[in-house]
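Lecture 7 notes: from sequence to structure.
We start with the chain below.
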Amino acid sequence: MPRGDTQARNHPRKGTSIKVEPIRDLRDILEIKECLMHDGRARDYCLFTLGINTAFRASDLLSLTIGQVEHLETGDLLEIKEKKTGRHRAVTLNRSGHLGLVIWLREHPARHDPDAPLFLSQRRHAALSVSSVNHLVKQWCRDIKLPGKFGSHTLRKTWGYHQRKINDAPVPLLMRAFGHRSEAQTLAYLHIQNRELRDLFLALEL
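Predicted structure tokens for the same chain:
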């Protein structure tokens, strides 16, 4: 499908919903990062980078404060209390995630206030909303003319997709990371089930 049709596919009809996709090509991830950096959107660069490197839900990313992240270095644990489950969850901050934080914290207008939201909205003392993140992710993908259905869940799905396809992460481990109840749910969530089954049949000829 031509990339020019992206906008229509990115917006479901009123009263309907869509299942968003991961960003499958590493070149597209790099292009989004380059666009955000080139345009001086440090907040959005940090949001995108943390989102695809931690697998936190958007609501959990938006709950972060300056005080929770300002001291972190690569390899440190970043712990949050998940809004959806109420459980505490910790992830290890990698170099990409740490770089995103460093870049944004240099410019954060409230960087000296530990209680300030990490991801500020246009209202200085308020955090971004999930709906705003949903809009941002769609816009980033439109900016690089990427076809598909994208939204806030795209960030954590992208992490899981590449963990599976590049890092060969076991499905049960990804299932635990996402809090899913079955491996089938995880494979469907990452949009790779059909592809893996197809590869299974093509990989061996008897």
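Points to note: The beta strands are 77-81, 88-92. Residues 1-17 have pLDDT under 50 and may be disordered.
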